[in-house]
Structure to design on (1057 residues):
């Protein structure tokens, strides 16, 4: 029975809605006049400055402040002044968008993007030395390539987290809303080992992954398997996973508080690769580790018996059970691997942001869902591809839309996929309605 | 241990505008999930649209307060239609994901600095109660009313009365609808859409109507909250949606009074815990800091939700025989 | 209607020879060139088929013949790749299932859809058509729908009595036995005042004691002027009450005609049996071995 009716009016209406949403965002960009010169005043700290040339103020110049999980921008007022409030005393990068400077004017010293540190005071001033000169305008293409690479880095990390969620869905039918917390858990485990217990970081990280795996094991053994045996419906299980998400999230906050912690070595030097692409040493390690982990996972899924059994169960649980596969054992293994990969992804996410916060996993939960849905709920490789696409989309979208809306793009993709192609890129077309 | 203050604050939590706002949101969710079986995890989005619709029409467009509130309601209706038309045929857990995503998009749009002139972005909006004349419409002369823990100044009393009035109307609305033949069809749809279609009912239209009605209740919840406090995107996060779900399940998802009682109990418990736990910590009875004690109450919410769904999914007033999501 | 009377069979239903696609004297449903494929498999490929009015037509065939698919296509629960079909002169292609139901067709399901979480009486009341109270605006004003609701309740109780479910009216449908739920589904279908009743394997999962009762109810439908089309596997039942039989195999109609003649047709025997040429079709397909054939003679 096919309930995925292809009525023309309905399809058209859906298209209208997607276009409508895009228009709203686009219109907003046109409508927002360049008048906001100060932003984020509710925060205790701020970065501020003045843009002047030869004593003459320049209004309408765009300034962007980026820091750990906080991005804001503003435009200089007519007197050249600007102020951006920031939530925490961290290091921020302040970028002057040279495209908003008048013709022939550029930043002369220090580069268009500079760092400030609020370590000692509540407010820091950052002025740019500008004057006649050739701006080292980064071409759009170069920026795009840079964003693409960052997107791939982010996407690989997201992929590690997404694969687990997809497999859990494929084998048990559960949309696990607590998956974000498994990501946070890995980062926190690394934090406790590496910082509190001062274990060397190259031991702490694998240990954190192992502890995450243990966490996954205990969740299945203590919670999910008994509930499955009890015969609870998927909606009930989903709501329980939401309760679990709340619990774990706040337990983590209980132990590490509301601030941001850092793993050792988070501040690694940047290496200029080519063009305007500069990756830090950590980024390179992260990409390398992600790729190795993904390859290892792929070998497991394709070559080993348990991997094949997992795919069989995702495809057809009843048939798999009937052909002698111990479904419970395989599901247990899936939970362990899912948690281990999520934990690893959490460690990498901690280096990427950089910073560990109690709700860091929750922040990317919807992105993970977007990746998994895009790739196809229940597929492993689909989840990876979906994650790469989401990662690239999120990073490159900040070239076109305001940076604080960059997650919206991924969310729109999530909704769009469920509307137009619910089986995702690689899933089988099954009933979704 | 200052039990006097703890009890006082707890009892006060029984009747605050916040409690009423969440009772309204829970009522909306009862319509969506309890009666129509729609897994709406974006109820916070409806609240946000109601609240911002009210505040923005007053501040940016100069509407009077009641006009602004009507705009908030219309906004909720439009959001319900926008959300519902493409997604109502999706399977349950897919609908859950779509509604969470939609509510997040709404929140991010209100948070972004791109629209800050109209939305105030992270700062939010305030002053609209005065600008729109809601404060002036207060019929109670200045003074102190009530007694004991339920003492209010005239402004809060006005919001409370207004909120209670709206709540009463909405509860009546829901009750009247669900005992009518329309309600019967909705309950049938909740269990088995195809059977209802085979009997000649336009299932899609009914689901959309249920989504709209529940959306209006949620929007009103946002408006009542806005009338009391300020409008800020930090309120309408997914955690709020989860708290509303907890309130609903606690009271009884498919009942009329369940959402209201559930919300009251939930927020009173929150008031109690947020007072008692830090005190216990400071008194050394609990081996933790005051801040940790405050975090503990959310941990208890999470655990409570899990236990509720596992052991008593019908909540306090619900009938287990009537629940569709319980196998 | 006592269960032991031999049912009155309708005759003179067809024009010309009784072969697949033959015209009927008074067709209720006319199907033309309907095709439906799933992937590479053609599930249904019917050139022409007419269902006679005020008669009981059985749609039979081996598993995988396409009977339920055709059923779903005719009732709007599925869309064909090509084809047109008319119900009492009105074209139904592209009409959604709920509208088809409003036009006077009603169907039951192979896996009974008694709404377990509602009471038996509520189940019945849901069936009634054109209820004022089902419109959201008028639902709020009980004055506008109370009277109609009371009338519907009277009708529901009458039907429940006829199906011997009246004592259960306040129970949740979940507490009914499987057979009682079948009866409830049929009774509920009758609340819609249909002209064409389509039953998808009404005998499936019903214990033998209840079968006679169900058969009797189906015959009553014809007595009250309705047309019945049912899908079944049980050839004894088909022989007992059907006026006309349509045999499907591999998506096509391979034979049509009155039950006695159809069962002897080579095409039908081939479709069902393959190797078991000598065995009575009824024995091969029958789930119950006893409906006394002597009585029919």
């Amino acid at each position: 029975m096919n309930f995925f009716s292809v009525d023309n009016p309905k399809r058209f209406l859906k298209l209208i809605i997607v276009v409508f949403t895009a228009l709203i965002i686009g219109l907003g960009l046109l409508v927002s006049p360049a008048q906001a010169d100060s932003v984020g005043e509710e925060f205790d700290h701020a970065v501020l400055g003045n843009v002047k040339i030869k004593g003459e103020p320049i209004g309408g110049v765009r300034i962007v402040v980026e820091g750990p999980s906080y991005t804001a921008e503003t435009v200089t007022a007519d007197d050249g002044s600007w102020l951006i409030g920031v939530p925490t005393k961290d290091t921020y990068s302040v970028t002057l968008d040279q495209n908003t400077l008048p013709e022939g004017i550029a930043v002369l010293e220090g580069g268009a993007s500079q760092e400030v540190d609020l370590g000692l005071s509540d407010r820091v001033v950052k002025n740019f030395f500008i004057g006649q000169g050739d701006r080292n305008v980064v071409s759009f293409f170069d920026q795009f390539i840079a964003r693409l690479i960052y997107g791939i880095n982010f996407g690989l990390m997201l992929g590690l987290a997404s694969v687990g969620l997809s497999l859990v869905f494929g084998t048990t039918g559960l949309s696990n809303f607590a998956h974000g917390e498994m990501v946070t858990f890995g980062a926190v485990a690394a934090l406790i080992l590496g910082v509190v217990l001062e274990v060397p970081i190259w031991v702490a990280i694998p240990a954190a992954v192992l502890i995450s795996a243990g966490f996954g094991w205990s969740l299945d053994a203590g919670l999910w398997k008994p509930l499955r045996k009890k015969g609870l419906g998927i909606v009930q299980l989903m709501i329980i996973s939401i309760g679990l998400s709340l619990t774990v999230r706040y337990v983590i906050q209980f132990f590490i508080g509301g601030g941001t912690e850092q793993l050792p070595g988070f501040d690694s030097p940047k290496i200029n690769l080519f063009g305007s692409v500069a990756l830090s040493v950590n980024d390179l390690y992260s990409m390398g580790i992600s790729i190795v982990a993904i390859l290892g996972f792929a070998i497991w899924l394709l070559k080993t018996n348990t991997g094949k059994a997992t795919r069989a169960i995702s495809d057809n649980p009843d048939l798999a059970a009937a052909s002698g596969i111990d479904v419970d054992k395989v599901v247990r293994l899936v939970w362990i691997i899912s948690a281990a990969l999520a934990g690893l992804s959490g460690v990498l996410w901690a280096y990427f942001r950089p910073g560990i916060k109690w709700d860091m996993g929750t922040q990317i939960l919807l992105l993970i869902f977007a990746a998994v849905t895009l790739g196809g709920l229940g597929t492993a490789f689909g989840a990876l591809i979906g994650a790469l696409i989401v990662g690239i989309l999120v990073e490159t979208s900040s070239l076109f839309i305001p940076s604080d809306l960059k997650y919206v793009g991924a969310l729109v993709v999530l909704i769009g996929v469920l509307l137009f192609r619910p089986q995702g890129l690689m899933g089988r077309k099954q009933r979704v309605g | 241990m200052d039990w006097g203050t703890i009890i006082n604050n707890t009892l006060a939590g029984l009747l605050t505008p916040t409690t009423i706002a969440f009772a309204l949101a829970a009522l909306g969710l009862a319509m969506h999930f309890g009666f129509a079986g729609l897994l709406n995890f974006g109820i916070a989005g409806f609240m946000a649209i109601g609240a911002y619709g009210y505040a923005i029409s007053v501040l940016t467009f100069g509407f009077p307060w009641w006009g602004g509130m009507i705009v908030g309601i219309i906004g909720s209706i439009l959001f319900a239609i926008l959300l519902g038309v493409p997604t109502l045929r999706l399977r349950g857990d897919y609908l859950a994901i779509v509604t969470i995503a939609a509510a997040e998009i709404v929140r991010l749009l209100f948070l972004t600095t791109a629209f800050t002139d109209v939305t105030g972005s992270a700062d939010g909006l305030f002053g609209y109660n005065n600008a729109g004349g809601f404060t002036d419409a207060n019929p109670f002369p200045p003074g102190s009313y009530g007694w004991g823990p339920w003492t209010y100044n005239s402004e809060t009393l006005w919001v409370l009365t207004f909120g209670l009035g709206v709540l009463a109307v909405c509860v009546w609305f829901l009750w009247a609808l669900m005992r009518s033949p329309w309600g019967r069809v909705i309950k049938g749809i909740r269990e088995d859409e195809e059977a209802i279609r085979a009997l000649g009912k336009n299932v899609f239209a009914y689901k959309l109507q249920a989504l709209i009605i529940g959306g209006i209740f949620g929007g009103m919840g946002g408006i009542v909250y806005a009338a009391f406090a300020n409008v800020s995107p930090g309120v309408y996060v997914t955690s709020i949606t989860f708290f509303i779900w907890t309130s609903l399940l606690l009271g009884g998802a498919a009942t009329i009074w369940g959402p209201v009682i559930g919300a009251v109990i939930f927020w009173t418990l929150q008031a109690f815990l947020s007072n008692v736990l830090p005190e216990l910590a400071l008194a050394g009875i609990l081996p933790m800091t005051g801040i940790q004690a405050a975090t503990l109450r959310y941990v208890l919410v999470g655990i409570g939700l899990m236990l509720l769904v596992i052991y008593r999914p019908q909540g306090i007033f619900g009938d287990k025989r009537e629940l569709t999501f319980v196998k | 209607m006592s269960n032991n009377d031999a049912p009155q069979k309708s005759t003179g239903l067809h024009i010309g020879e009784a072969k697949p696609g033959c015209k009927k004297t008074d067709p209720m449903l006319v199907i033309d060139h309907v095709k439906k494929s799933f992937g590479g498999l053609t599930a249904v490929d019917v050139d022409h088929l007419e269902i006679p009015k005020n008669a009981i037509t059985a749609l039979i065939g081996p598993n995988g013949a396409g009977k339920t698919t055709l059923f779903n296509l005719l009732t709007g629960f599925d869309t064909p790749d090509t084809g047109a079909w008319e119900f009492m002169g009105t074209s139904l292609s592209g009409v959604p299932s709920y509208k088809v139901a409003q036009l006077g067709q009603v169907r039951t399901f192979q896996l009974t859809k008694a709404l377990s979480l509602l009471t038996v009486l509520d189940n019945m009341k849901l069936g009634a058509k054109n209820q004022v109270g089902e419109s959201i605006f008028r639902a709020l004003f009980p004055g506008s729908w109370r009277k109609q609701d009371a009338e519907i309740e009277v009708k529901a109780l009458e039907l429940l009595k006829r199906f011997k479910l009246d004592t259960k009216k306040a129970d949740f449908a979940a507490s009914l036995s499987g057979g009682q739920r079948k009866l409830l589904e049929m009774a509920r279908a009758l609340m819609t005042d249909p002209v064409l009743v389509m039953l998808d394997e009404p005998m499936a999962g019903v214990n033998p004691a209840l079968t006679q009762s169900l058969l009797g109810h189906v015959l009553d439908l014809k007595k009250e002027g309705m047309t019945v089309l049912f899908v079944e596997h049980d050839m004894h039942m088909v022989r007992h009450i059907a006026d006309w039989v349509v045999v499907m195999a591999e998506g096509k109609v391979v034979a049509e005609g009155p039950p006695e003649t159809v069962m002897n047709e080579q095409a039908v025997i081939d479709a069902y049996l393959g190797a078991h040429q000598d065995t009575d079709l009824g024995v091969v397909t029958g789930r119950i071995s006893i409906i006394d054939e002597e009585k029919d003679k």
Residues 290-297 of chain C have pLDDT under 50 and may be disordered.
